[in-house]
Write a structure and sequence with these properties.
Length: 244
């Protein structure tokens, strides 16, 4: 998905190739992107916050903001520690721990800026929901390769990644992404292309960007209207009840 000034549209669907790793596939996507004309971000889950991927995107002008696995190593005060181990020592009363609101929910967060393995400098945000502070199962960690923005900006920007999940849910619920039965590579790629075109049409049906659901139901109403109109014309032309 690509997002710019509130406009969010599907950029490409890539068929998984077992001969290459997911990291290689994402690197190739980065290589195909145009150079970003302004500060831009690659948003991802913890599968893709690898040095190779982040380097590929920074070459095209995209910083990375993504989730980070809790076993990643950081170096607070020069001491090598896993994030999960370091988080055990945090206290709500620590000066470096603050309370932020993201998407209507409150989180206790700690901001680390410094070295990671193979990364000379980045920001790592360690967070707990307010009601689950200190619970290892509730621990969430995020990384930003842009150290010049605030903790609030990092977390708010990461939430925009939800558009990816929303696109797949819409495609499954409305565009048969989880129901199509095609085996050939060419057939699958053609279906994905048609699906993406329909998604685009739904988002842009009014001539300006709107929600997918608005466009989807607009076209549903158009189809129903055309069916009734065709049926009316069929009967008007003298068709029998059996033919109707």
């Amino acid at each position: 998905m690509l997002s710019c000034n509130g406009l969010i549209l599907n950029y490409a669907n890539i068929l998984y190739d077992k001969s290459r790793s997911k990291i290689q596939s994402v690197q190739e996507i980065a290589d195909e992107l145009p150079v970003a004309p302004m500060i831009s971000y690659f948003l991802c889950d913890s599968w893709y916050t690898s040095v190779k991927v982040m380097d590929s995107f920074i070459r095209k002008g995209f910083y990375t903001i993504g989730a980070l696995k809790t076993n990643r190593v950081i170096y607070p005060c020069g001491i090598r520690q896993k994030v999960s181990e370091f988080a055990l020592h945090l206290r709500k009363t620590d000066r470096a721990v603050s309370l932020v609101t993201v998407g209507g929910r409150e989180f206790y967060v700690y901001r680390y800026e410094g070295e990671l393995n193979d990364i000379p400098n980045a920001v790592v945000i360690i967070s707990y929901p307010r009601e689950s502070f200190g619970d290892p199962k509730a621990l969430r960690v995020f990384i930003s390769t842009n150290a010049g923005i605030s903790t609030q900006e990092i977390l708010d920007t990461y939430t925009e990644r939800w558009a990816i999940e929303l696109f797949f849910r819409q495609s499954k619920n409305r565009l048969a992404l989880d129901k199509y039965q095609i085996r050939s590579r060419q057939g699958i790629e053609r279906y994905w292309l048609i699906m993406s075109l329909v998604h685009y049409m739904c988002c842009m049906y009014s001539g300006k960007y709107n929600t997918f659901e608005e466009g989807y139901w607009y076209f549903q109403d158009q189809v129903k209207t055309e069916r009734i109109g065709n049926l009316h014309q069929f009967i008007k032309n003298g068709a029998s009840l059996e033919a109707v």
